[in-house]
Amino acid sequence: MKKFFLHLTLIISLFTISAKAQNKIIVSDLKCEMLTNPEGIDVLQPRLSWKIKAEINDVKQTHYQILASSSLEKLNAGNADLWDSGKVQSNESVNVIYNGKKLKDRQDIYWKVTVFTNKGEVKSTETAHFSIGILTYADWKSTRWIGYEKLSKDDSVSQYSRLSARYLRKEINLKKQVKSAKVYIMGMGLYELYINGNKIGDQVLAPVPTDYTKNIKYNVFDVTSQLKEGKNMLGTILGNGRFFAMRQDYKPYKIKSFGLPKMALQLFVEYTDGSKDVIRTDDTWKLTTDGPILANNEYDGEEYDARKEMKGWSTTNFDDKNWINARYVQEPGGFYEGQMSANMKVKREVKPISIKQTSKGTYILDMGQNMVGWLQLKVKGNAGDKITMKFAESLQSDGSLYIANLRDAKTTDVYTLKGEGEEVWEPRFVYHGFRFVEISGFKTKPALENFVGKVVYDDIQTTGTFDSSNPIMNQIFKNAWWGISGNYKGMPIDCPQRNERQPWLGDRTTGAYGESFLFDNQTLYAKWLDDIKNSQTIDGGIPDVAPAFWRYYGDNVTWPGTYITVADMLYQQFGDKKVVEKQYPSMKKWMDYMEENYLVDDIMTKDKYGDWCVPPESLELIRSKDPARLTDGELISSAFYYQLLNIMKKFAVIANAEKDIKHYDELASRIKKAFNTKYFNASKNSYANNTVTANLLPLTFGMVQEELQQKVFENLVHEVEVTKNGHVSTGVIGTQFLMRTLTNLGRGDLAFKLASNKTYPSWGYMVENGATTIWELWNGNTADPAMNSQNHVMLLGDLLIWYYENMAGIKSNPETPGFKQIIMKPDFNAGLTYVNASYESVYGTIKSDWKKDKKALVWNITIPANSSAVVYLPASDVSVVSINKQKLDKASYSHSTEENQIKVTLSSGNYAINVK
User: Which ranges carry the Alpha-L-rhamnosidase C-terminal domain (predicted)?
Assistant: First the structure.
């Protein structure tokens, strides 16, 4: 009997522990293809993910069970008619592949997950949903593209193209009560969709841009709540975007244009009695170009005449007798795809800090921050009064706008009042990069309250925070955030203000990696890799700009090589194998193309840009003229190609193409031998002309013989520390590896000096000279400001990676991609006295908050559930270390001592570490 009660007590005790654990563990953030409840995906076996959030330590998933149903009612009733995975033994909670019944066009799927952990069983607190899109081109065959293939009287096709917006409407009659309804829309180049007078969705500047001759993205919206039995009105406004290019009949050999705006739409309705209906675009839709949006051009701005507003145009009570019937038009040509990345959105607001009158009677508005988006205007006046707003990044010495660096972009919005009390307006189909706005047309001085800055970028989460003991580094981080976010426009662009705004590959070779710590950019960059793949020529060439809105096919290595390095980032940071498998054939095709056409005597002979934007020897020079500062282009392209071969070896394993590895190995070995024969100077232990970049690349890529590595590194350090007096001397290529290599090889203090410098050339120099974003040129304020974009990100190099991996100690173990295991190894002696950083990984929040003085290091860390970390502590004696107030030498944590460091392996949870 005594044994029975002991046994019963043990069972009750275990049950109580399990129940308590469940109360402290939740499963949330359910995602499909890393999107939250996406509509219209075009993947039949999507990947499902979830996060386990726990208030207790050492939580590991042991099993999971996914239930997927065709309706929410069935799911809630436990009827998994699409998929019951059963209890699967697995610790994977990211990218779990759906393996249920074959999914069909336009099907809705509802799912949830039960997670079994070492601390108990937990059901997801939320129910997730996704729907399948229209999977085949044939399913759009009954839907015709409509538009108007003519210019209106004030339109023009010229260098400064003008085109008014197209307004379309269609009255429909729904004869029964609506159970569900979804609309599928392709609006080229940009659209806004309305039903019964209400805008559908909060997206702006939709859809994301592509090469429209290759692929067209459609968006899907559940509009059940917007429709009613009886008469309803569908309405759209079509803007120009990249479709009707900003510059027409101007360098047509370079700039692509795709035609006049057009659209295709399908509305699927299911009634409560089970019957269905489909409404499609056809020539019964009504159209006008005589609306209030007179012109919309991404470079030049938007013109709006409120006197031409058509009140109620998207409702059933509007008289459209003066509208014409829409015309059937030629389709764009690209394949139709569900959009698998976020649209843009107004993400935050900025209030201006000052407004001053100029000598000519206009006003200069200062937003206090170089931002990207537009200005909302509040104004009162008479009908016909015009308010003109011209946007720029900086001012001249006399207080007027500096516009030379905008080139021929007019960057001007014009609003004509209707004269009906307070009028509130903001543009729909443009964006500007600006801090300052010149405003004219007000009869009296406007108040700051008349204006609000709307910040626009892709609707993705900010995932990283960083604060440290160095104010300059902190401001650089803020500047980077503003620059990166502003240049996310459905694709990563180089700048948001002048007549360029192009998705240059070379700006993101390593930059995308650093950006991934600040933003959840996985789907953005996965989409961009598709853009690059679609831009590849039949023989294998890849352009420098993709989508190839500019036809720049220069057969470079370092710029097109971004195709491979960004895929590697997605694998390393997010554990995304699928993107590697999908892109591998095209990557291999490009690697083969470059080998066949440009590899001569095992040296890659094609380089176009060199180490772009090396800091010139003079503050007045745009480009350096000193040969001693410039790195041999073939050295760069050969070293870079060698590194790409090593990445491709890893990709070959992931893509089940192991047969390619032998070729990559043999070719890499030959290039390494030829490289050292040609460029290594044995008498000086340096490469080529001994620039930092010339020595840095072979060191970083493992091309230097082991016994010579230290001597080559000493040369590199001498160049940075002595010759360049502790300043950056690398361009876009070298800066991608500079900070990490210095730190990893023992000179984190020198990297810190580069990061915290305030004098030219440095990131801090930009801050000291008033920058609130990152410049295109190291000396952009003095060389020729007309050549300088004040919002560029390419010069960040690997700085942000260094912030997180080397200063905060938040790094994904390459052996377990996606932060399944974290390497936490900050350089505590580089120069900072505290760092407080966080990163929202695919497993959950990682935190690293450390502070040190002469007496102790105090380090608080958070490791997400179902993950772990290898933590490196700056001590060799375990007796001086305590974790959660428990002495390490008396604790059960797995640890070892190596090279004057203690390595501790920790499971998930919160830890307070003290090292005396």
Answer: 809-883
Task: Please give the Cα distance from 6 to 234 (Å, whole number).
Answer: 71
Interhelix angle 633-654/562-574, nearest 10 degrees: 50
Q: How far apart are CA 804 and CA 464, in angstroms?
A: 9
pLDDT at 901 over 50: yes
Residue pair 851/832 in contact (Cβ under 8 Å)? The answer is no
What is the reported pLDDT for 251?
86
Structure tokens belonging to residue 714: 């000493």
Distance CA 720, CA 740 (A): 14
Cβ(338)–Cβ(217) below 8 Å: yes
Residue 759 has which token pair? 């004098």
Asked if the model's pLDDT at residue 916 lies above 60, the reply is yes
Cα angle at 531 between 527 and 533, to 5 degrees?
A: 110
CA–CA distance, 735 with 514 (Å, rounded to integer) = 12
Strand locations in 459-613, DSSP E? Answer: 464-468, 599-600, 603-604
Q: Give the separation between CA 792 and CA 493, rounded to whole angstroms.
A: 9
Distance CA 774, CA 768 (A): 12
pLDDT tens digits along 162-186: 999 999 999 999 999 999 999 999 9
Cα–chain-centroid distance for residue 444?
42
Entry pTM? 0.96
Check residue 117 and report its DSSP letter: E
- Say whether 385 sits in a helix, a strand or coil: coil
As a whole number of angstroms, the distance between CA 38 and CA 340 comes to: 8
With residues binned 3-state (H G I as helix, E B as strand, rest as coil), the percentages for the chain, rounded to 5, are: 25, 30, 40
Beta strands 412-416; 301-305: pairing state: parallel
- The pLDDT, as a whole number, for residue 3 is 41
Q: Output the CA–CA distances (angstroms, integers) from residue 141 to 211, 236, 488, in the order listed.
A: 21, 21, 33
**How far is CA 900 from each of CA 31, 805, 858, rounded to the nearest angstrom?**
43, 20, 18
- Please name the residue that has the structure tokens 């040129």: 777
Rg of the chain taking only CA atoms, in angstroms:
29
Q: What is the rounded average pLDDT for all residues in the chain?
A: 95
Predicted confidence band of residue 705 (pLDDT cuts 50, 70, 90): very high
Dihedral of CA 560/563/566/571: which sign? negative
User: Distance between CA atoms of 403 and 406, rounded to whole angstroms?
Assistant: 5
**Residue 599 in contact with residue 644, Cβ under 8 Å?**
no
Instruction: Give me the helix-helix angle, 692-701 and 661-679, nearest 10°.
Output: 150
At position 227, the amino acid (one-letter code) is L
Strand residue runs (E) in 196-342: 198-199, 215-222, 230-239, 262-271, 276-280, 286-288, 293-297, 301-305, 324-325, 327-328, 335-338
Is 193:185 a contact under the CB 8 Å cutoff?
A: yes
- Cis amide bond preceding 207, omega within 30: yes
d(C-alpha 245, C-alpha 254), whole Å: 12
Confidence of residue 793 (pLDDT cuts 50, 70, 90): very high
